[in-house]
Design a protein that fits this description.
The active site is at 190 (proton acceptor). By secondary structure, this protein is of the alpha/beta class. The protein is 39% helix and 14% strand. The protein has helices at residues 19-30, 41-52, 64-74, 92-99, 118-124, 144-154, 205-215, 239-271, 302-314, 342-347, 350-358, 371-386, and strands at residues 58-61, 82-86, 103-107, 129-132, 157-161, 169-170, 173-174, 181-185, 198-201, 277-278, 285-287, 292-296, 319-321, 359-363. The protein is globular.
Length: 387
């Protein structure tokens, strides 16, 4: 198309850091104790992160996958149990359950929000179901009202995979105010990061204390006699990681404010491009951190989608193909898979079959760009699709 920009001006870099992160690292260094049992950074980060999300009961861990594993173990997940997960998600959601010996049961998602479909969840509940794990895709909450009712009626637990949902709100309530455990990731691309790291939020202190034992080889904080009280592993976050994350948390609210301003503009522009369908935002998610700017191109072939992504990258837009359906990943079938074939799961996940084949996402740093850059992104995508 004539008149379209050849490239988009550079977006803000990610991760973002500055003197605050440097000061935190020096502070952690100079305290002379670099693990959580002797230092203060992890304890302080837990208090700050928990308060930001509406609960005093936070536990910092090594990464987001371990956050899910710790939460699932506390909830009693293990051999003989099942965990219902969306089939469209990063595979850690299912692997965390499978690593504990449980069966991960993939279910379909909503075609508009890309979050787990409550009706599909309800149909998948059995007497072996222990946990329902909604994923808040790209910061968009799954339907927590419907899922809360399904879980309560079935007598099973909810575990929010909130790896994309730092600072999100559902009908005015923060993630930690929804009454269920929630797990977060601080991996390098996440909305706040120290390269790696994770956290778990709990609705009460008793559950948090049980999780503390799991994450610290079964030992309570005050143990001096190696009285390992339960099973577990070493999932402890270090002091340097926590120091960086404290600075990152201080940046989060302002970054979310910018993304909340940019996404409606970009989504509207994308919707004007023939054949492009942006992710729908449920209005009950009244604060969305927009971990990814996601859209579908229905009918596109895998080869064409890859070419579109490559062309966007070449023209300065950080783009990616969407997650593969977890049941179409070889690793899913190595342990804890349901007694079904790929084709049988695909037949009951028609929306996932579409989304994982035709969805593209843009890095959230694009939404930290200027209003003009939102117009530039849309113009470049229109040009690439017309080419």
């Amino acid at each position: 198309m004539s008149g379209q920009p050849s490239t988009v001006p550079e977006f803000p870099e990610w991760p973002q850091f500055g003197d605050e992160e440097r000061a935190g690292l020096i502070r952690a260094l100079e305290q002379g104790q670099w693990w959580r049992m002797g230092g203060s950074e992890v304890d302080t980060f837990e208090a700050e992160f928990g308060a930001y999300h509406g609960t005093p009961h936070a536990l910092a861990v090594t990464n987001g996958t371990h956050a899910l594993e710790v939460a699932l173990e506390v909830l009693g997940v293990g051999p003989g149990t099942e965990v219902i997960v969306p089939a469209f998600t990063f595979i850690s959601s299912s692997l965390a359950a499978q690593r504990l010996g449980a069966v991960a049961v993939p279910v379909d998602v909503d075609l508009d929000t890309y979050c787990v479909d409550p009706a599909a969840v309800a149909a998948a509940v059995t007497d072996r179901t222990k946990v329902i794990m909604p994923v808040h895709m790209a910061g968009q909450f799954a339907d927590m009202d419907a899922l809360d009712k399904i879980a309560a009626d079935a007598g099973v637990a909810l575990l929010q995979d909130a790896a994309h949902a730092h600072g999100a709100q559902w009908q005015g309530r923060k993630v930690g105010e929804l009454g269920s455990i929630a797990a977060f990731s601080f991996q390098n691309g996440k909305l706040m990061t120290a390269g790696e790291g994770g956290a778990v939020l709990f609705p009460d202190e008793e559950t948090r204390e049980r999780a503390f034992l799991v994450h610290s080889c079964g030992r309570p904080r005050t143990d001096r006699d190696y009285l390992h009280r339960t099973t577990g592993s070493n999932y402890r976050m270090g002091e340097f990681t926590a120091a960086v994350l404290r600075a990152q948390l201080a940046r989060l609210a302002g970054q979310i404010d910018v993304r909340e301003q940019r996404w409606p503009l970009l989504a509207g522009l994308l919707a004007e491009i023939p054949g492009v369908v942006p992710q729908t935002i449920d209005p009950r998610t009244d604060r969305n951190p927009h971990y990814m700017a996601m859209f579908r191109i229905p009918g596109i072939t895998p080869e064409r989608r890859r070419a579109v992504v490559d062309a966007l990258i070449a023209r300065g837009v950080p783009a990616f193909v969407a997650f593969r359906a977890i049941y179409r990943c070889e690793g899913f079938w190595k342990a804890g898979a349901p007694d079904e074939t790929v084709e049988q799961i695909a037949a009951r996940c028609p929306n996932v079959e579409q989304i994982h084949s035709d969805c593209v996402w843009l890095h959230h740093r694009t939404l930290l760009g200027t209003e003009q850059q939102m117009h530039d992104i849309a113009a470049v995508l229109a040009d690439v699709l017309a080419g």
